C-alpha cells in the first residue's frame, strides 16, 4: 500500500468500511495467530487466512511475505500475526484483539472494561512467551536439540513456579468477578475468555501432567475453558479443518521431558 | 478497595475525576516502572511514587504489597508496575500507558494512531523482556551467577540477532513516518517515543559496545533519543533524584561479559 502524507493522514482518521478481514500468519501452526482466529471464528466474522490460501489466487506465504517486506508500508508489522482491516495493517496479537474487540462485540463498552480485558490479555501473552521459551530458552533461531539442557532447566522452573502462579491468578480474577464466574470480565464473553481457552489447550498439550496438577485446584479456569469449548461457533470451528492441530513447530510442543511435576 | 457488585458496575462506567495518580513499583530500580514514570514526568502529571514513600505516611513497600495481596480487589495486578487512578487499578506497563495516553496527551486522537502507538509499545515490551532474559534465561527466581553459562549463550544471540533486528525496525518506522522523522507516530510526541528513549538508555547501559555498533546505522533512532532527552520536563526529571540510576537489580544490567560484539 503506497500512501502519500495526505492519504496517510486521512487513513488515520478514517472510519473503515466493513470488509473481509485478512489474517496473515504462518500457515502450518496455531501459534499466536490462533488467538486472532478464535476471535474471528467466535464472532462469525468474514476473514481470509491469507498464508493458508493458494499462491495462484494471490494468497499463500508469498502474499504474507510481500506485505512484511513492503518498504512503502508506513506501519510494517515486526512479525506475524498481523491483520489487514481495510487500509489498516495491525501487528501484535493483543493489539489486533483490542482493535477487533468492539466490532466483534468481544469486549465490554466501558473504558474500564476494555482496560481490564487488555490487561488480562497481556498477562496471557506473557505466559505464552514463557511457555515458548521452555523449549527455546536460548534462541528461536536454534533447534530445540541444540538448547535441550537449558530447556530442561527452564521448563522445571516454568512447571513448578510460573505455571501455578499464572493459573492461580486467572482463578482469582474469575472468582472475584463481581458479575459472576462465567467470564473473566463482566457478564459477557470477551476475547480474553477465548485466549484463556487457547492457553489452557496449549498447556494441556505441552505439559499435560504439570497442567493437570494445577488445574485440579483451579475449577473456575476449568469451567471457563469448557464453556468456551461448547460455544456453538467455536465448537464447529474446532471440529473443522480450519483448526490446525498442535504440532512440534508451534509455541506449545509435546516434549515429555519438559513436562516436569 | 472493597466494592459490591453495584459499586463495581458503576466504577466500570464512571468518568474518573482527575486525582493524583499513584504509581506502584519496586522502589530501588528503574525497571518497567520507568516507562510509566517517563510518561507522567513528560506530561507534568501529579503522581505519587508510592513504594518510594515513607512507611510512616502510609506509603512504602507495605502500601504496594497491601494492594497486591488485597483479596477483595476485583482487578488484582499480576505484578508491578500498576497504577491507581481514582477507583481504577491498572497493571501491565503497556496498558497503563494506553490508559494514560489520552489524558496526558501522549497519543494521537484517532483510533488508528492509538492502535499503531500501542503496537510499537508492545514491540518495545517484547525487546525489554528479551533484554532481561539475557541475564536471567532460566529463571528470575535464581541468581545471575547460577545461570551464567546460559546467559552467555542467550546474550550472544540477543546482541548479534535480536538487537539489530529490533533497532532496525524502529529505524524503519521512523524513516517511513509520513509526518516526518521527529516522532514514531504522526507529528507529535507519544508515550512510544518516551519508551524508545528509555529502551536505548537501557541498551546503552547494558550492552554499550553491541548497541553502539547498531546505533551507528540507525540515525533516526539516535536523533529521536536525543530529542526526548532534551525535552525540558524530561531533562529536569533525568537530572533530579527522582530518576533512579541503573543498577544490577534492574532489567538492564552491566555485565561486560554479556556485551558481545
Automatic annotation (TrEMBL), chains A, B:
Record keywords: Transferase
GST N-terminal domain sequence ranges: 19-108
GO molecular function, one term: glutathione transferase activity
Keyword Cell division: no
Domain of life: Bacteria
PROSITE patterns, per the entry: GST_CTER, GST_NTER
InterPro entries (alphabetical): Glutathione-S-Trfase_C-like (IPR010987), Glutathione-S-Trfase_C_sf (IPR036282), Glutathione_S-Trfase_N (IPR004045), GST_C (IPR004046), GST_superfamily (IPR050213), Thioredoxin-like_sf (IPR036249)
A Pfam family this chain is assigned to: GST_C_3
CDD domains, alphabetized: GST_C_Sigma_like (cd03192)
Residue ranges of domain GST C-terminal in the record: 110-258
Signal peptide (from-to): none
GO biological process, one term: glutathione metabolic process
Protein name as it appears in the record: Glutathione S-transferase
Taxonomic source organism: Pseudaquabacterium pictum
Amino acid at each position: 500500500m503506497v500512501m502519500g502524507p495526505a492519504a496517510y493522514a486521512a487513513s488515520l482518521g478514517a472510519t473503515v468500511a466493513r470488509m473481509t478481514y485478512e489474517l496473515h500468519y504462518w500457515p502450518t501452526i496455531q501459534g499466536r495467530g490462533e488467538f486472532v482466529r478464535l476471535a474471528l471464528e467466535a464472532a462469525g466474522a468474514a476473514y481470509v487466512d491469507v498464508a493458508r490460501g493458494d499462491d495462484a489466487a494471490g494468497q499463500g506465504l508469498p502474499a504474507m511475505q510481500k506485505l512484511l517486506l513492503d518498504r512503502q508500508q508506513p506501519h510494517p508489522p515486526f512479525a506475524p500475526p498481523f491483520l489487514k482491516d481495510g487500509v489498516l495493517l495491525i501487528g501484535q496479537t493483543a493489539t489486533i484483539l483490542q482493535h477487533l474487540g468492539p466490532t466483534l462485540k468481544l469486549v465490554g463498552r466501558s473504558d474500564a472494561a476494555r482496560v481490564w480485558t487488555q490487561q488480562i490479555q497481556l498477562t496471557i501473552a506473557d505466559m505464552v512467551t514463557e511457555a515458548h521459551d521452555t523449549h527455546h530458552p536460548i534462541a528461536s533461531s536454534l533447534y530445540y536439540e541444540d538448547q535441550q539442557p537449558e530447556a530442561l532447566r527452564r521448563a522445571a522452573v516454568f512447571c513448578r513456579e510460573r505455571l501455578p502462579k499464572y493459573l492461580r491468578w486467572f482463578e482469582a480474577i474469575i472468582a472475584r468477578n463481581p458479575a459472576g464466574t462465567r467470564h473473566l470480565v463482566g457478564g459477557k464473553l470477551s476475547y480474553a475468555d477465548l485466549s484463556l481457552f487457547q492457553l489452557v489447550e496449549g498447556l494441556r498439550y505441552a505439559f499435560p501432567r504439570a497442567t493437570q496438577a494445577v488445574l485440579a485446584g483451579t475449577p473456575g479456569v476449568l469451567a471457563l475453558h469448557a464453556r468456551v469449548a461448547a460455544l456453538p461457533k467455536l465448537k464447529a470451528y474446532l471440529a473443522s479443518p480450519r483448526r490446525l492441530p498442535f504440532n512440534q513447530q508451534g509455541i506449545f510442543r509435546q516434549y515429555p521431558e519438559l513436562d516436569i511435576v
